[in-house]
Design goal:
Helix content is about 15%, strand content about 55%. It is mainly beta. It has one domain: Nucleoside Triphosphate Pyrophosphohydrolase (Alpha-Beta Complex), CATH 3.90.79.10. Strands 1, 2, 3, 4, 5, 6, 7 and 8 form an eight-stranded mixed beta sheet that branches. The protein starts with 6 loop residues before the first strand and ends in an 8-residue tail after the last strand.
Length: about 140
C-alpha cells in the first residue's frame, strides 16, 4: 500500500501513566517541525485492529500491551514531508506491564530508529509540544 496515495487504516494505543502519555518523536523536514504521536501503525488486510496494535508494539518497542478499551475513530488528512496523506485512525486505551515500563524506548519502524518517551499531557494541551493527530485530544 502506498500511504501517500490511498486511505490507510491505522491503530494507535494511548498509554497513560502518572498524567504522561507514551509517544514517539517525529520530525517533518518540510515544516522544520518536531512532533509526537502515540505508538501504533498500519492494519494489514484481514488483521483485526487489536492484533495490529499488539504486533506494532512488539515490532516497534519489543513490548506486550494490555488493550483496555476502544476509544473511537477519526479521519486524519494531513501533509508530511510535503506529501498529502489520508488515514482512518482507531484509538485504544492500553496499558504496559510494569515489568516492561521504561522511561524511554528505542522505536524501530519503517523510517529507521527514533525514540519514544513519556511526556506530560499538559505539555500537549498547552501547546508546548505538538501531538498528532489532533483528534487524539478527545481521548486524553
Amino acid at each position: 500500500m502506498n500511504k501517500f496515495k490511498e486511505i490507510r487504516p491505522i491503530v494507535l494505543g494511548l498509554a497513560i501513566k502518572n498524567d504522561k502519555l507514551l509517544v514517539s518523536e517525529g520530525y517533518d523536514h518540510s515544516k522544520n517541525q518536531t512532533f509526537y504521536r502515540c505508538l501504533g501503525g498500519g492494519i494489514e488486510f484481514l488483521e483485526k485492529s487489536t492484533d495490529a496494535l499488539k504486533r506494532e508494539f512488539l515490532e516497534e518497542i519489543n513490548t506486550n500491551i494490555i488493550i483496555k478499551n476502544f476509544l473511537g475513530i477519526s479521519e486524519n488528512i494531513f501533509t508530511y514531508e510535503g506529501k498529502n496523506a489520508h488515514e482512518l485512525v482507531l484509538y485504544y486505551k492500553i496499558d504496559l506491564a510494569d515489568k516492561d515500563y521504561k522511561d524511554e524506548y528505542i522505536v524501530n519502524d519503517d523510517n529507521g530508529q527514533s525514540k519514544a518517551t513519556w511526556i506530560n499531557i499538559n505539555d500537549f494541551k498547552n501547546g508546548n509540544k505538538i501531538l498528532y493527530p489532533e483528534e487524539v485530544f478527545k481521548y486524553l
